Amino acid sequence: MKRSLEHIQYTDDTETLARFAKALGHPTRITILQYLEKQSCCFTGDLVDVLPFSQSTISQHLKELKNAGLIQGEVNPPKIKYCIHQENWKIAKRLFKSFFE
Amino acid sequence: MKRSLEHIQYTDDTETLARFAKALGHPTRITILQYLEKQSCCFTGDLVDVLPFSQSTISQHLKELKNAGLIQGEVNPPKIKYCIHQENWKIAKRLFKSFFE
DNA sequence: AAAATCTATCGTATATTTGCGATAAACAAT
DNA sequence: ATTGTTTATCGCAAATATACGATAGATTTT
């Protein structure tokens, strides 16, 4: 991909909002987050049981949600407990709200 | 890409929310929408002047926003006037709001 | 020590996204 | 009729996303 200018500078809020939105841009990830909102927390395996995708695919979606900052995982051997990242969740909520006015 | 099951059925709201989120998942498109929120409407050329991308690239982003239902274009020869799609905008606002509770 | 459980990561294949320049299409003005 | 203006679309290239099976790593249980 070629870019005409080195790096366009959007505002930080714009970048952040786009990053959150991108992470939400897949029905599986929306579903995972809705599940987490209800359950408060869950293990990867719970989602594998619920969603019709392979373990590796679910794991990848979780990774993306984690990279976007929307969830966090605590090691709880041999499992990993995933929860919503409350702090960033609030930021996302605020950014979307103010975006839509 | 292989899919293990023919078609997963998410709820309509989940599908719709993901579709909106995906369209919002790029800083340029966020910027375009913020511009439209302020200006209420604009022409493609206005955005080409403001954003550091080629006319064809801007046009493509507008197409995606239109496909997602977030904006609409009225022909106003030889220009095209783009506005926020108020009805769908309200739906998006509601879906995001209830998603974040 | 061996087996079982759980999850991340690697490698691979395919689809989609993002960007550009060039061109086409639609209309207005000359 | 020709020219200019505006925008969409085509064709291309590179990057990213999505899915899978196989495997590796960590820890518990036996």
Automatic annotation (TrEMBL), chains A, B:
An MF annotation (GO) of this entry: DNA binding
Pfam families assigned: HTH_5
Superkingdom to which the source organism belongs: Bacteria
Keywords from the named record: DNA-binding, Transcription, Transcription regulation
Matches recorded under SUPFAM superfamilies: Winged helix' DNA-binding domain
SMART domains according to UniProt: HTH_ARSR
UniProt xrefs under InterPro entries: ArsR-like_HTH, HTH_ArsR_DNA-bd_dom, HTH_MetalResp_TranReg, WH-like_DNA-bd_sf, WH_DNA-bd_sf
HTH arsR-type domain segment(s): 9-101
Protein's name according to its UniProt entry: ArsR family transcriptional regulator
Organism of derivation: Balneicella halophila
